[in-house]
Amino acid sequence: MRRRRSLASQLLVWQLVVVMCLLFAVGALTVVQTGRNFRSNEERRMLSVAENVAATNVVQTQMGNRDLLAPAAETARGLSGATYVLIVDLQRRVLTSPDPAQVGSTLDTRTTAFDGKAWVGTAGDSIEAHVPVFDEETRKVNGIVVAGAREPGIWEGALDQPVDALRYLLIALVIGVTGSLLLARRVKNQTLGLEPHEITALVENREALLHGIKEGVVGLDAQDRITLVNDHARDLLALPGNAVGQSVEQLELNDRLRDVLTGRATGVDQLVLRQGVVLTLNRMPIEGAGAVVTMRDRTELLALQHELDASQHATDTLRAQAHEFANRLHTIAGLISLKEYDEVSNYIHQISSAQDQWRAEVSSSIGDPAVAALLIAKASLAAERGTTLRMGPDSVLGRVDEALSADLVMVLGNLVDNALDALSSLNGAQKWIEVGVVQMDDEVQVVVRDSGPGVAPELAEEVFRHGFTTKAASHGERGIGLALIRRACLRRGGSVSVSGSVFTARLPW
């Protein structure tokens, strides 16, 4: 495999490239500026040379005499440093020139000097000045003087001083090498000694790891802005595509989720409800850098737990009924042993009347079989715990559809269980639970009240938001069932609230 270059060598190469580009740019600008300055100066100088030659008495009076004109032209050329000085008559014949082969030839350059106007400009690779020669007596144009200087090449100016150019190049190279080495050392310290290809591989591995795991991962900086989020977390939290870079407070999240993401709610396996999905979140702070939050979907597990709780409640109800029947049988057996046959008859009649009365009361008010069966079963469980379960005076419910019936069973079951848990801490006090189910035109209203202490006013909202992690018997707080009740009510467009020991749920239908 081809050996990879180190970070220092790569920075050195790029620094040298940058330095050379800068030198080239500066050199090009210098050459352009030097050329402009040279042309401006040479134009003025050539014009002055041509004017001086054209103003001499010999040139003005002896235009046709080459022997007298040549010395004047050469003297001016030698003194001024011009490349050539030409004297041309009105027929455009060259009378004097440093090049003997050019003498007698025709000047083919267009110029305004023959019209009496001086001209300065570029002719080929030279800068020329054309000045008319006026006859001393008639003051008419009888010829022109051409003074020219060859324009140097692009690099001639730089090559005139090779030592300075080499010195500047060496200084630039030393600065570039030193700067690249210092920069490479600083960058390497900041990247923990990793080379660029190692950093690239590390980022690729991180991306593959983040998007490959089944857990959701969210990275936050010290200001609670999202720095990274994998696909699973984006789906679980229903985050928008531009969530990265935004603050948690700017996103449309519920208060409970914000508290967990920002660290205001601490603890392991924090439970949060997000758009009908139950999530378990764990937040790990990173010193000075923010935090990393991992999350898992617990909706299915919670549903299984709820089904298990329902089975457990049914088992408890059957156990309570069996226990109640066993006590009654023991009582009947004892009365028979004592030959108190009349008391046996009265006792059986009393028991049968009480059960028949509760069944009749439930059946007359509740027309849905599932809800009626639940209330009849809960009465046995309440009796075992020394609690009286009674119906509200205005209770009335007809047969409803299966979906609403299932929601009513879940709401009533959880509210009665929470009330039983709340009353379990009362000793020696009269304990009762009143259940009211009222069917209206567009909704069913469920009201459950008990003789317990109730929920503190400051916890009226908290019991629904933090109900996942609290236990019903602890300081009047309720359990996970309240969160399920709230979700069922909100799904139907209803609501659930608590005031003291009275819970009210509204389920539209």
UniProtKB/TrEMBL annotation:
Keywords: ATP-binding, Cell membrane, Kinase, Membrane, Nucleotide-binding, Phosphoprotein, Transferase, Transmembrane, Transmembrane helix, Two-component regulatory system
TM annotation in the entry: 12-32
Reaction equations catalysed: ATP + protein L-histidine = ADP + protein N-phospho-L-histidine
Organism: Lentzea guizhouensis
InterPro entries registered for this protein in UniProt: HATPase_C_sf, HATPase_dom, His_kinase_dom, PAS, sCache_3, Sensor-like_sf, Sensor_kinase/Photoreceptor, Sig_transdc_His_kin_SpoOB
Ranges for domain Histidine kinase: 408-509
Main location class: membrane
Compartments where found: Cell membrane
Source organism phylogeny: Bacteria, Bacillati, Actinomycetota, Actinomycetes, Pseudonocardiales
Entries under SUPFAM superfamilies matching the protein: ATPase domain of HSP90 chaperone/DNA topoisomerase II/histidine kinase, Sensory domain-like, Sporulation response regulatory protein Spo0B
One Gene Ontology term of the molecular function aspect: ATP binding
Membrane topology designation: Multi-pass membrane protein
GO cellular component, as recorded: plasma membrane
PROSITE patterns registered for this protein in UniProt: HIS_KIN
Annotated EC: 2.7.13.3
Protein name according to UniProt: histidine kinase
